[in-house]
Amino acid sequence: MPSANTADFEDGPVELTDKRKDALNTALDGLGKQKQTAQVLKPYTKFARWWTRSEDLFINWYSVLDRGLAWMSRSFGELSQSQFQAKYEADLAIYKDMVHGVTCFEQDLSYFEDPENVERKDDLAKAMIAASAAARSEDISSLSKAILVYVEEADSGTKLLPAISARVKKCESHGFKHPILGRLLCPIKYLDNLNENPAEYLKKLDNGNVKVRSRDMPSFLWPKDGYDCEQMEENMFRNPILVMVWKHIFTCPSSALKDGPGRTKTRSSQAKMNKMSSVTPGSIAYACLMLRHSISDIEDWRTEDKLFKREEFYEFIMALFDDGDDEESDWVKDTIEWWNAQVFGSEPKSVDDSDNELGPSTLAIIKKQRDQRRAQEARKAKAQTSVTSIADRATPARDPHPAPRAHSPPRSPGPRQSPRRSSHTSGNNR
After folding, report:
1. Number of domains the chain is built from
2. Which of 134, 168, 193 represents a domain boundary (last residue)?
3. Which of 131, 168, 200, 367 could pair with 45 in a Cys bridge, judged by C-beta atoms 3.0 to 4.6 Å apart?
4. For residues 188 and 219, is the Cβ–Cβ distance under 8 A?
5. Residue 173 region, left (φ>0) first, then alpha (ψ -120 to 50), else beta?
6. Helices in 102-224 by DSSP H: which ranges?
């Protein structure tokens, strides 16, 4: 995430009219939907809705505005400027994007920095939080019926059996109570156990006898029959259902069932309105959360699914894309390029769990496999160095005064050979 810099926010003050001040006062004094729908706040609420979907589902707008405005007014408390920047780097980076993404924010800064309006930043945060929640609720509602169509489509159009009636409550028909949806929700590490006795194992998952935790990745992250326990990253996040959910949210529902990229004639898709040219890890994680909630038996987003905590699951997914030393890994690049090809038509380029009764978490295994890869590459490099060193020692030293060589009669010249040309093929054959 880019760090904030003082110069990033210093474009000069813009005059705020009395008319706009009055409009801000009226809007921020409003309640509930009045805040969300107020025209003067639309740029802020639009930004909040988009950021929630594409970057961070669980963003704290109170913190972002509080740290950002403190930075602007040089109010660092007991911290130095550099300490404040280091401590709140993530919030300041989002605030920087907000300054540039909300066209009227620069104009409104004097209003929010005014000592008389000290509480107004909290009122703005409330409006942005409400807008984020509304965006999430709209997506959940829109997916409630469509998700069953997407599950069928991913299985070659096979009807979902047993069929789910619209009159039956979600808590009675979804989740581990349904054999197909339950299989998608089943943690990938338990899938072999499920295959041995599906009906019995689904009951154990449903009643909590088999624990399902946030850190154990569900089967729907991989395509059917596309999981390799030795290479868990392979095909991860490439389930066609997940792609359809992403398209439903970002390139409009009508694009979800199309085989090709989700180009549509509508001007109102989230991707078009926000000039999205590349899939983001946050948008993939958001689609994962929407998919899981849609097929689970949880009715209300505010209700957690036993031991499974949504925010933890979201953070585990984000950690796979930002793994410290491995953040620029080929897997991250390949995954984003694959997604861009699916939804935008962009050509891909070459490129502790001791309490868990059935072994370590999916995230832990992937991290271990990454470490093993790095160690293997280090061993190869060390072995190559050793071989070179041995070869150097085994080569006899040259005699500084070699005996003169006997001259052989000249040979008749043979046909001249052309130097070998190396061929280079650009592009991607994968």
Report:
1. 2
2. 134
3. 131
4. yes
5. alpha
6. 105-113, 120-154, 170-173, 179-185, 191-196, 198-207
